[in-house]
From TrEMBL:
Biased composition (Low complexity): 170-183
Annotated spans, Disordered: 161-183
PANTHER family xref list: EXPRESSED PROTEIN
Keyword Transferase set for record: no
Listed GO biological process terms: cell adhesion; cell wall pectin biosynthetic process
Cellular component terms (Gene Ontology): Golgi apparatus
Species, as recorded: Arabis alpina (Alpine rock-cress)
One Pfam family from the record: DUF1068
Keywords of this entry: Membrane, Transmembrane, Transmembrane helix
InterPro entries membership: DUF1068
Protein name (Swiss-Prot/TrEMBL): DUF1068 domain-containing protein
Residues annotated as transmembrane: 12-32
Keyword Lyase included in the entry's annotation: no
Length: 183
């Protein structure tokens, strides 16, 4: 048991040290490299003329004399190349223009379709709004009719009560009373 706790303490200690190193290591590294760079730059700058040296130096044994001729300008070849280049550019511009016109045509067609669909939806919305207004008017008329009917019902109920009608009277009791009176 004591060995396990000692091993656990050692493991936790190593973990803590590695975390401290992970957190503090990079800033310390960059700080030390700055200090070393400042101390290393204390020497005087080198004085050399690098402009006279070519960027790419080919050893003399491997150089090809005809390589220098490749870079020379040949007016006949250059003219044909320029014509071909101009033709290629013209062809590419025509192709891009044709593609652009095709895209423009598709976009216009899509826009026209969208306008048609929008118009149809607007018509449907107008119909719906009109129907809603009609329904609302009918509802208001029905409410007024209901209020009038309730008034009329209460008037008839009042007259019936004055004539002796009671709430418990049903259709069957009314029939039996009327048949008794008829005999």
């Amino acid at each position: 048991m004591a060995k396990h706790t000692a091993a656990l303490k050692v493991g936790l200690g190593l973990l803590a040290l590695s975390m401290v190193g992970y957190i503090l290591g990079p800033p310390l590294y960059w700080h030390l490299t700055e200090v070393v760079a400042v101390s290393a730059s204390s020497c005087s700058p080198c004085a050399c003329d690098c402009s006279s040296l070519p960027l790419l130096a080919i050893p003399k044994g491997l150089s090809n004399a005809s390589f220098a001729d490749c870079a020379k300008r040949d007016p006949e070849v250059n003219e044909d190349t320029e014509k071909n280049y101009a033709e290629l550019l013209t062809e590419e511009l025509k192709q891009r223009e044709a593609e652009s016109m095709e895209k423009h045509k598709r976009v216009d067609t899509g826009l026209l379709e969208a306008k048609k669909i929008t118009s149809s939806y607007q018509k449907e919305a107008d119909k719906c709004n009109s129907g809603m207004e009609t329904c609302e008017e009918a509802r208001e008329k029905a409410e007024k009719a209901l209020v009038e009917q309730k008034k009329l019902t209460s008037t008839w109920e009042l007259r019936a009560r004055q004539k002796g009608w009671k709430d418990g009277a049903t259709k069957s009791t009314v029939k039996s009373k009327s048949s008794v009176q008829a005999s």
